[in-house]
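Action item from last meeting closed. Structure (452 res):
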């Protein structure tokens, strides 16, 4: 065996190595990895929708940092779970990718990643894009930066590269295997064949309501949903908060444009659900990004919230990405007093209104009037008049609620009863001065303290 190499042979070998290195530099990393390890399946994609991807990843990391990415020929889905009581699944819009290739014998690729680190990288690039857009007084939606994603199968890193006309930055993320089928096939998934409730609402109002509940330090959240009945022409959706400052109720506006759909199945007229609010508030980020929220509940107590997140770039063929949250509601056996109080308060509201209105008019010397139809909950200590104009977002932020003057018959003369209106305004002003500052209404829903 010859341990020495001639100079001529050494020069030839060096030249061959240089040529191989030059050729190797011109081959993309995915191709080099495939040639070296003989893997049969590889994935390559490119997109310029950085901001949209950053929003999706941030919404998922509120549930858990570790996630499973499933790559198929028809798209990418991301799954994460939290303590087997809450999980999230996001399906990315395939139209955001300008290049999408899954080459190989396998129909899909699964990889576990630390999604929090990846989300931070996308958010860092998205923040720089937003600053540039603000300086240019325009919105590019991230179109001036290209993102290249590649993965070459089990054991390979996930490679993400950001490139513009000035600089190119390549990042490699370790991947791992998660031996937990419950993340994808969970027992808390909704049963569409046995639905108990269907609800479709506007997301901006729901986000304002969640923010209000968070500011008053809600611990237990009760959601009361009732469909339209013979006694109530509109559906009712109430969020009851129980926390250290007491119990408060936030009434979701029942306008058709806000509550587009509310159906109660299985012969029930209403449904009450209970959640731990710290866990429930994890959906707030995704709710803020969406336009509409679809809420489902089955007879086993599984709760599902589906959110359609639009792409800020507004691509022509883009329908948006879908995020679905599944969660279990809490056992209500230990809160019988809260359930009884909610139902008793709702049943007593017509009598409370009538008795208080009759007492107020008798003190002024006026004959009693029939109460107007009430669409919101009336408490014994507070009267909420019927809104004269249709509900809208602006009307929720308006503090003053006006009511048309009431005409009474006195000695054959038509007289406008303005004394009661002025007295009512005076009492409302006094109540505003004595109102507890800890109860705040940020906007979006009507908030009423039940008891403290």
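Sequence:
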């Amino acid at each position: 065996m010859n341990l020495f190499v001639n100079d001529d042979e050494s020069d030839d070998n060096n030249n061959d190595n240089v040529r191989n290195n030059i050729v190797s530099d011109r081959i993309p990393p995915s191709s080099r990895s495939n040639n070296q390890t003989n893997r049969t399946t590889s994935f390559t994609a490119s997109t310029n929708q950085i901001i949209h991807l950053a929003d999706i990843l941030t919404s998922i990391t509120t549930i858990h940092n570790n996630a499973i990415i499933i790559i198929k020929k028809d798209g990418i889905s991301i799954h994460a779970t939290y303590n087997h009581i809450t999980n999230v699944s996001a399906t990315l819009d395939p139209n955001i990718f300008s290049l999408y290739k899954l080459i190989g014998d396998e129909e899909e690729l699964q990889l576990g990643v630390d999604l929090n680190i990846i989300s931070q990288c996308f958010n860092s690039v998205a923040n720089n894009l937003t600053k540039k857009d603000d300086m240019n007084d325009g919105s590019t939606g991230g179109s001036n930066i290209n993102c290249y994603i590649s993965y070459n199968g089990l054991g390979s890193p996930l490679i993400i590269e950001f490139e513009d006309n000035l600089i190119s930055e390549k990042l490699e993320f370790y991947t791992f295997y998660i031996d937990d089928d419950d993340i994808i096939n969970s027992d808390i998934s909704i049963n569409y064949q046995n639905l108990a409730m269907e609800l479709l609402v506007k997301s901006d109002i729901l986000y304002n309501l969640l923010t209000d509940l968070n500011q008053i330090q809600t611990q237990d959240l009760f959601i009361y949903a009732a469909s339209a009945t013979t006694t109530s022409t509109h559906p009712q959706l109430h969020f009851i908060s129980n926390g250290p400052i007491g119990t408060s109720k936030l009434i979701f506006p029942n306008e058709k444009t806000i509550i587009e759909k509310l159906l109660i199945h299985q012969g029930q007229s209403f449904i009450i659900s209970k959640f731990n609010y710290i866990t429930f508030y994890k959906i707030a980020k995704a709710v803020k990004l969406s336009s509409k929220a679809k809420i489902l509940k089955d007879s086993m107590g599984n709760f599902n919230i589906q959110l359609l997140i639009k792409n800020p770039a507004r691509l022509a063929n883009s329908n948006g990405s879908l995020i679905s949250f599944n969660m279990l509601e809490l056992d209500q056996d230990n809160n019988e007093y809260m359930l009884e109080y909610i139902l008793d308060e709702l049943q007593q509201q017509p009598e409370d209104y009538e008795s208080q209105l009759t007492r107020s008019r008798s003190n002024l010397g006026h004959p009693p009037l029939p109460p107007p139809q009430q669409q919101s909950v009336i408490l014994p200590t507070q009267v909420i008049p019927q809104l004269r104009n249709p509900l809208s977002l602006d009307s929720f932020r308006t503090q003053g609620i006006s009511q048309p003057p009431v005409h009474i018959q006195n000695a054959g003369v038509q007289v406008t009863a303005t004394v009661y209106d002025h007295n009512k305004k005076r009492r409302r002003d006094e109540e505003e001065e004595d109102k507890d500052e800890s109860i705040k209404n940020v906007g979006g829903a009507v908030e009423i303290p039940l008891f403290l």
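Note appended to the action item: The radius of gyration is 30 Å.
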